[in-house]
Design brief:
Blueprint lengths: L8 E4 L11 E4 L17 E5 L6 H9 L5 H7 L13 H11 L7 E5 L5 E2 L13 E4 H11 L2 E5 L4 H11 L1
Antiparallel strand pairs: 1-2, 3-7, 4-5, 4-6
Helix pairs in contact: 1-2, 3-4
Length: 170
């Protein structure tokens, strides 16, 4: 069943014509329960690495035999924006970076030391060191994108419990 089927409805005049009020029942998409869920036990999850081209719908079909349960995958990983919380494909990442940093995709974003901390270019650099490491705008965005690739998948045997808890909270 689709995610929004669980949401309550509210009465709303979608036409907005003065003196001709016609109330329709619409889905209240403003209801939020993500932070109320108490799913913390690591035994409930499988770790999964999202490859280029994987989508929540395809993973829901793979793990649950139901692509409409894609919201469970997003939900388990606290993803509220499937366009930017979900890892971009390499092509989409290139387009994103070129739009965010026009004419400067390979420009300097920052420097890092050997421990991955931001540093100034000349800060405590030994003469024979290759550090500080140069992090370009593209590399910075690629690292951030790759951090989204390791996700939790709720194990199949717990999905119905999650749905029931979600329904009770919504």
């Amino acid at each position: 069943m689709a995610y929004f089927n669980y949401f309550p409805t509210i009465g709303y005049d979608v036409r907005g014509i003065k003196n001709e009020t016609r109330i329709n029942a619409i889905t209240n998409v403003l209801v939020r329960v993500r932070k109320k869920m108490n799913i913390t036990n690591a035994a409930l999850f499988e770790q999964f690495f999202v490859s280029d081209g994987d989508k929540p719908e395809t993973l829901a079909h793979k793990f649950y035999d139901d692509s409409t349960l894609h919201w469970i995958i997003l939900y388990a990983n606290y993803m509220t924006n499937p366009f930017y919380d979900w890892p971009l494909t390499y092509y989409d990442l290139q387009m994103y970076v070129s739009k965010k940093y026009p004419d400067n995709a390979n420009g300097l974003h920052h420097y890092e030391d050997e421990d991955g901390f931001y540093v100034d270019e000349d800060e405590n650099k030994p003469a024979d060191s290759i550090y500080p490491k140069i992090i370009t705008n593209f590399l910075y965005e690629e690292i951030k994108n790759d951090e989204n690739r390791n996700i939790n998948i709720i194990k199949r045997e717990y999905v119905n419990q999650v749905i029931q808890e979600f329904k009770s909270l919504i």
